[in-house]
């Protein structure tokens, strides 16, 4: 079990996946909140039936899977529905994150969650690492990667906490506006050495 947990977050297009992949190559267990969020609404899960009851059968695809695009559109335009869905899914996601963290075998583990701060997951971690970029970088990266319009990406950015709020919650900030993969790897290596020291101190207590 990892007694030391890092919470990694950042806005859309900040490079969270690239950074977590580097940590993973260094032997660190990664707990991905987005993957867990997809798993808890898989075909056959009770949660999928509850979503169908609340929103309607048309939110389920003919193959029995969740129509994620339609659900995403619904909760972006309706705060009450967003709150209902969050109240259903967040306890399940939190429970699975806790379970995976307790099962981790690496010296420390990382919970990567775009909404780490918004969803109160900071209470599960010892330290918060923010992957930080400016808004223009978020827009350019995400429109190129996902073929979304700037308006769509801006709506996602606006739905997340501001850059300033993330920085205020951060114990560590990794600037990733124009880093080469070599520079990024070097920065992650420095953080890795620091986290190994922190985890060793906790384990001695």
UniProtKB/TrEMBL annotation:
On whether Transcription is a keyword of this UniProt record, the answer is no
Which family is annotated? Belongs to the CoaE family.
Upper lineage ranks?
Bacteria, Pseudomonadati, Pseudomonadota, Gammaproteobacteria, Alteromonadales
As its record notes, the protein acts as a catalyst of:
3'-dephospho-CoA + ATP = ADP + CoA + H(+)
Give one GO term, molecular function aspect.
dephospho-CoA kinase activity
Keyword Cell division present in the record's keywords: the answer is: no
Which InterPro entries does the UniProt entry name for this protein?
Depp_CoAkinase (IPR001977), P-loop_NTPase (IPR027417)
User: Which source organism does the UniProt entry give?
Assistant: Colwellia maritima
What pathway does the UniProt record associate with this protein? Cofactor biosynthesis; coenzyme A biosynthesis; CoA from (R)-pantothenate: step 5/5
CDD domains this protein is in?
Answer: DPCK (cd02022)
Summarize where ATP binds, as residue positions: 13-18
Identify the keywords attached in UniProt to this record, alphabetized.
Answer: ATP-binding, Coenzyme A biosynthesis, Cytoplasm, Kinase, Nucleotide-binding, Transferase
Record's protein name: Dephospho-CoA kinase
Localization of this protein? Cytoplasm
User: What's a Pfam family in this record?
Assistant: CoaE
Q: What is its EC number?
A: 2.7.1.24
Q: Which SUPFAM superfamilies match?
A: P-loop containing nucleoside triphosphate hydrolases (SSF52540)
Entries under PANTHER family matching the protein: BIFUNCTIONAL COENZYME A SYNTHASE-RELATED (PTHR10695:SF46), DEPHOSPHO-COA KINASE-RELATED (PTHR10695)
User: What function is annotated for this protein?
Assistant: Catalyzes the phosphorylation of the 3'-hydroxyl group of dephosphocoenzyme A to form coenzyme A.
């Amino acid at each position: 079990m990892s007694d030391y947990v890092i919470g990694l977050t950042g806005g859309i297009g900040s490079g969270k996946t690239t950074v977590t992949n580097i940590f993973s190559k260094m032997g660190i267990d990664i707990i991905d909140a987005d993957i867990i969020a997809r798993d808890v609404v898989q075909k056959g899960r009770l949660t999928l039936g509850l979503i169908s009851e609340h929103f309607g059968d048309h939110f389920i695809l003919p193959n029995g899977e969740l129509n994620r695009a339609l659900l995403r559109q619904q909760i972006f335009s309706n705060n009450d529905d967003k709150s209902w869905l969050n109240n259903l899914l967040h306890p399940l996601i939190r429970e699975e994150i806790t379970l995976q963290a307790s099962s981790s075998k690496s010296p420390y583990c990382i919970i990567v969650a775009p909404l780490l701060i918004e969803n109160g997951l900071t209470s599960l971690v010892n330290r918060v690492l923010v992957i930080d970029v400016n808004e223009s970088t978020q827009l350019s990266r995400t429109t190129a990667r996902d073929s979304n319009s700037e308006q769509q990406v801006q709506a996602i950015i606006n739905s997340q906490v501001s850059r300033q709020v993330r920085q205020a919650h951060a114990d560590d900030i990794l600037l990733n506006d124009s880093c080469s993969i070599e520079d990024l790897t070097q920065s992650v290596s420095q953080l890795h050495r620091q986290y190994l020291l922190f985890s060793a101190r906790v384990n001695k207590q």
